# Entry
Amino acid sequence: MNEKTVLISGAGIGGPALAFWLKAAGFEPTLVELAPALRTGGYVIDFWGLGYDIAERMGLAKDIDRIGYHMREMRIVDDAGKRVAGFGTKVFRELTGGRFVTLGRSDLSRLLFEKIEGTTESIFGDEIVGLQERADCVRVQFKRAGERRFGLVIGADGLHSNVRRLAFGRRGRFEKQLGYMVAAFEVCGYRPRDEEVYVIYSERGRMLGRFALHDDRTLFLFVFAGTVPLPVMLDLPAQKALLHERFGEGKWECACILAELDRTQDLYFDRVSQIRMESWSQGRVALVGDAAFCVSLMAGQGAALALISAYVLAGELAKAGGRHEEAFGKYEELLRAYTSSKQRGAERFAAAFAPKTRWGLFLRNQVIKAFSFPGFARLTFGRDIVDTLQLPDYRWPALPPTGN
# Structure
C-alpha cells in the first residue's frame, strides 16, 4: 500500500490545513466531511500567535485581515445596559505584536478549504463507519462510498471526533467537562448594534454576549453553569426551552434575544469540555486539533492549535519519510507540553465567563477594570497569550507557488 495516501476526517480547520501541508510534502490526502457542504455560521474566534504565523505561511494573512474584525473593546453591562466594566483590546495587540484578529470560524474554514480546492480529493456528505488496520494500510468503511484503503487515517473531526471513537473508544473516556454549557446563533437586522465591541451581560452562573458581524448580522453567545441530559443535546426545541428557563428572568436585552432565538433553526449547542488523552495516535491512526486535545471553546485558541498540530504532523511525516510511528511520536513529543499548558490556562479562564457567585462576578469585574493599568494585563494573563513554542522549519518540496 502507498504510505503517502492519507485520509483526513473533518473539513473544519485542522483538516484542510493538514491536507495543504501534506500536499506540500508530497503526500496524497483525501478529505471526508459528514456535512453536505462547508459549514456556515457558528461562532467567532480570536486568532493570534503561532496559528496566525502558519496562516501567513499559507498565504492567508491578507484575506484574514480583510474578512476579520478588529475589536476596540470588551464591555460588560448591567441590567440597564450601562457599562460597569471592560477594557480596550489594544492590550491584546500589544501582547501579540499587532497580530490579533477576530473572525468567524466558518470564514477561516472556507479560506483554508479554498487553498486545497481542486487539488485534493474531497468527499462531502459521507462519514467513516469502520476502521480495520492491516500491516500495510487501513481499510476504511464509508457509510455511502463503500470500502477504500489508505496508508494513514487522521481524525481532524473535533470534540465529537468519530475517528477517535472508532480507534480509541467512547468520548467519555477522554472528556473532561468544565461545568458549563454554551449556545450560539446569529440573526440579521438586530438592534441595538455596537460595532467592534464585545457586549457581555452577566448574572450568577450565566452570561449572554452580543457581537456585531458583517452584513448587518449579529451573533449571540450564551454560557451557563451546569450540565444537560443527552436528550436535550439532541433536541432543538428542548435546547430553546432550556435557554428560556435559564435566561428568561434576565434583564438587559434577554427578552429580545430570546424572541430571536425562537425564530432560528440553526443553533450551536454543546458542553464546554476538554479532551485529554495519553496518546494521540494508535497504529496508523492519529488525531489533530480538538479531536486530540480540545482546550475548550472558552480558551479561544482551538483554531490556532488545530493549525499548529496540522503543520507539525505533516512536517514530521515528511521529515520521517512517511515512517508513521516515528513521525507520530515526534509530533506528540513536540506539542504535548504546549497543549497541556493551554488546557490549564483555559481552565483558569473558564470561570471568568460566568462566575457562579455574586462575589465571583464582583471580583471578575474588578480584575477587568484593572486591565486599564499599564502592565497589569501582561502580568495577569500574558503567559496564556504569548506563545513561546518554536515551530520547526520543515522542507516542503511541493509547496504551491502561493506559499512562503
Observations:
- The first strand starts at residue 5 and ends at 9.
- Residues 324-350 form the longest helix (27 residues).
